[in-house]
Structure formats: structure tokens, C-alpha cells
Amino acid sequence: MAAHRRPKQPSRARVTVLTTAAAAAVAFSSQAAGAAPSGQPSKDEVKAQVDALFEEAEKATEEYDGAKEKQDKLQKEISNLQDSVARGQDELNQLREDIGTMASAQYRSGGIDPSLQLFLSADPSDYLDKASALDRVSGKQAVTLKRIQEKQRELAQERTEATGKLKDLAATRTELGKKKKEVQGKLVATRKLLNSLTAKEKAQLAAEEQRANRSSTERVNLGNTPPASGRTAAAFEAAKTRLGSPYVWGATGPSSFDCSGLTSWAYAQAGISIPRTSQAQANIGTRINSVSDLRVGDLVFFFNDLHHVGLYAGNGQILHAPRTGTVVRYESMDTVGGPFMFGVRV
């Protein structure tokens, strides 16, 4: 009679593997059916989070641009000061050489007491002429000594100023590095969020962005709003030539831009120098508070902290560099993502 044996139980490790595999299969089938995995945000939720991160990145970008502009300005000022100090030191060395030459000449001519020189002189009138020349040399020596003192004070002041600017430059570079890391961190977080989407959802978002880029340049109605002036019209025409150029944070053209990089580049093409950052650009020109009073080419500012700027294009549209992943394009003021604050006419 055959012995009855208890069926062999699977090991705990095997049970765990089987359970994990089954769970993965369920998750895969859910995604294939178009449902978001349990605990995962939906496509719309991810898009909202991505938009918020892009806004934070753009704000940090403008702060980075401001620090970069300050760094460039300090570097130029320090270079000018260092050149001035070098020239001043050369002048000081020459003055010291001159005073040394005069002192040596006086020493050689003054070896005999002046009264004895007069007694021994065959021609007293000749001695008196020499004595008069010696007085003039002494006067020139005094002037040279005074100039040396002034140059020393001037060089000390310039060196102190340069030292202060070098410290400021070091602090600015540290700030620049922090802002760069902040922007990069926001963009990394954005990529992680986008990678949490299914391939289908990613394709849908990419298609939506492509449509926005394409339609804004091909089928936009700008109406018949007149330009503000010849200069702003020229700036706007320059910006139009950049339609389709990619947004790159910190870029000022000519092939890629961030928001204030585009506006500062466009006005530069019209022969007008404006500040680099959106916050600084908001403080120039004449403020325009009503949309109805805007003219083509006016600067338009968005968000309470004014971290986004574009060019008014007419009919409620702006021409701007929106954010990472987009291109220079037309867009309705209502879809920028933040409230319109005011315009500026340069």
C-alpha cells in the first residue's frame, strides 16, 4: 500500500517571487488599459506639477540672469581698475626715478659750500646764474614729491576699491552657482515627473506642445494694433525673425533665448540697450496699465514678481520665449500662466 505523503509546500522565497510577478502583471495590464497605476498621479496632475516646476525654474533663471549680469559688470569694473592701477604704478615709478635723478644731481653739485663756491668763483655772475637754476630745480623737486604723494593716495584708494569689488565678485559667483543648481534641480525634477507617465501619455503631451508651437506661428490673428513707435516696431520685427528658436535658460540669442534674453536681444537689434532681466526691464520707459492701451512692441510683464516678460503682438497676443521645452512663439496673454501686471513702452 502506497504511503500518503503531504504535498511539498513552496518556499517563502518562491511565494514572494510569484506574488511580486502577479502584482507586476496586474499593474502592467492596468497601464495597458489606460489607467494610472495605484498611487501614481494622472497625466493632468503631472502636467500641473510640471507647469509649476517650470514656473519656479523660470523665476530662478531670471535670478541667475541678474547674478550673471552683475558678475559681468563687476569683472569689467575690476579690469578697468586693475588697468588704472598698473598705469598709475608706472607713473609713480617714473616720478620716483625723476626725483632720484634730481637728488643725485644736487648732491654732485652741492659738495662745496655755496658761500665758498662764490668766493672761489672766477665769475660771480656765472655762479649766481647757477644758483638761480638750483632754486628752480629744488622747486621742481618739491612739485614732484607732492605728485608722488598724491599718486600714492590715488593708488591706495583704487586698490581698496578693487579689493572690495573682488569680494563682491566672489559672493556673486557663489550666488550664481546656487541659482544654476536651483534651475538644474527644477529641470531634473520635471524630467522625473514626465518619466512617471506612460509612453502614451508622454506622446500625448509632446503632441500638445508641438501643436502649440506650430499653431502659434502659423495661425495667429494679430489684428491691426499699431506699433508704439519706430524703435519698438523695429524691435518687434527683430523678435519675429526668431520665431521657432528654442527656449534655453540663461540664453540671449541669437539662436536660443530665455524670456528676457529675447526682449533684450530684440531691442538691441533696434539700437536700444535695455537691462538684462525682466525685473530690471520693468523699471524703464513709460508704464502702461491697461491692455487696451498697449501697442505692438511694448514690453509686457506677468506674475506678481515680474519674472516673465514678452513683446506685445496685438489682439491680446504676445511674442515670447515661454519656458524650457518650448520655442519662441505667439501666445494669448490669457494662457501665459500668470496674471498680466502691466506693460512698458521704451
Looking at this protein, list some descriptive labels.
single chain; 346 residues; alpha+beta; Helix Hairpins; endopeptidase fold (from Nostoc punctiforme); six-stranded antiparallel beta sheet; 6 strands; elongated
CATH topology grouping of the largest domain: Helix Hairpins
Radius of gyration, in angstroms, nearest whole number: 37 Å
Compute the number of helices.
Answer: 8
Please give the alpha-carbon distance between the first and last residues: 105 Å
Helix/strand structural class: alpha+beta
How confident is the prediction overall: mean pLDDT?
80
What does this structure look like?
By secondary structure, the chain is of the alpha+beta class. It has 2 domains: 43-195, Helix Hairpins; 223-345, endopeptidase domain like (from Nostoc punctiforme) (endopeptidase fold (from Nostoc punctiforme)). Helices cover 62% and strands 8% of the residues. The protein is built from 8 helices and 6 strands. It has helices at residues 12-32, 43-109, 114-120, 124-195, 199-218, 230-240, 259-269, 278-281, and strands at residues 286-288, 299-302, 308-314, 317-320, 329-332, 340-345. It has a 6-stranded antiparallel sheet with strand order 1-6-2-3-4-5. Strand 4 (317-320) and strand 5 form a beta hairpin. Helix 2 (43-109) runs antiparallel to helix 4.
Topology, element by element:
Layout: H1 12-32, H2 43-109, H3 114-120, H4 124-195, H5 199-218, H6 230-240, H7 259-269, H8 278-281, E1 286-288, E2 299-302, E3 308-314, E4 317-320, E5 329-332, E6 340-345
Antiparallel strand pairs: 1-6, 2-3, 2-6, 3-4, 4-5
Helix pairs in contact: 2-4, 3-4, 6-7
